[in-house]
């Protein structure tokens, strides 16, 4: 199977390696390869001959206008190139709870991306994942004020990136879902607890204060906003927080 991946971050690089190791013809492409999803530059040439295109790109800016333009324009250009080239499957990675966090510009942009894919001309699969264990430290940093981490006790059901990679690879090599699948880790945990447990392993000496107003990168949370949607029949990954922390110790 010939697979083109746009995006080479935490997930993109691992998905490319996993699919390549499985014997697929994989091209992981980005700006260094003359690709610009926001303008469409290089896209038709990149996707010509591909069976599947996987969009794992992410906006370099988190400002509301920039992130909306990035996902709106990039998705439109990729879909247009795929239609012209006859690509048969478009896969994106999105976020569990994005539609429940409309006060976040980033989440609104991800929902807009999903809507474009659903309305587009290419058979598709949308994988919605909860947040990765690897980003707990970033949540802590974003909530740090004067050496104290303000973290909400609202629940998150985090997942190991390697489990995300395994499921994305499975979706990529299967038939288009023409729908959405949700994936999550096995344990719903308060974000404040997640930060404390991470710090207990890393030795970080910042104190952690439960703060319901802390939110999540600018979005207000209820207790279940970042856990799987009821009735979604989410795929539950095997790796627990303790197992992931042990692998980092």
Automatic annotation (TrEMBL):
Q: Which InterPro entries does the UniProt entry name for this protein?
A: NAD(P)-bd_dom (IPR016040), NAD(P)-bd_dom_sf (IPR036291), NmrA-like_oxidored (IPR051164)
**Where in the numbering of this chain does the NAD(P)-binding domain appear?**
36-134
Q: Which UniProt keywords apply?
A: NADP
In terms of PANTHER family, this protein maps to:
BLL4366 PROTEIN, NITROGEN METABOLITE REPRESSION PROTEIN NMRA FAMILY MEMBER
User: What's the name of the protein?
Assistant: Uncharacterized protein YbjT (DUF2867 family)
> What organism, scientifically named, is this protein from?
Nocardia globerula
Lineage here is: Bacteria, Bacillati, Actinomycetota, Actinomycetes, Mycobacteriales
């Amino acid at each position: 199977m010939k697979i083109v991946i746009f995006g080479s971050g935490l997930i993109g690089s691992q998905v490319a390696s996993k699919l390549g190791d499985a014997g697929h013809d994989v091209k992981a492409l980005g700006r260094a390869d003359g690709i610009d999803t926001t303008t469409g530059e290089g896209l038709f040439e990149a996707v010509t001959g591909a069976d599947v295109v996987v969009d794992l790109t992410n906006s370099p800016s988190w400002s509301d206008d920039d992130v909306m333009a990035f996902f709106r324009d990039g998705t439109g250009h990729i879909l247009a190139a795929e239609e012209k080239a006859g690509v048969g499957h478009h896969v994106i990675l999105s976020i569990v709870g994005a539609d429940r966090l409309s006060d976040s510009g980033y989440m609104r942009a991800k929902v807009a991306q999903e809507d474009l894919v659903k309305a587009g001309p290419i058979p598709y699969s949308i994988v919605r994942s909860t947040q990765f264990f690897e980003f707990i430290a970033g949540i802590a940093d974003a909530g740090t004020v004067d050496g104290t981490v303000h973290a909400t006790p609202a629940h998150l059901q985090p997942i190991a990136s390697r489990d995300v990679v395994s499921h994305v690879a499975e979706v990529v090599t299967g038939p288009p879902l023409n729908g959405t699948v949700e994936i999550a880790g096995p344990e719903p945990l308060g974000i404040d607890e997640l930060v404390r447990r991470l710090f207990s392993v890393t030795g970080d000496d910042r104190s952690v204060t439960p703060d319901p107003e802390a939110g999540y990168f600018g979005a207000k949370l209820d207790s279940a906003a970042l856990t799987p949607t009821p009735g979604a029949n989410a795929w539950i990954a095997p790796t627990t927080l303790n197992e992931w922390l042990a692998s980092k110790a």
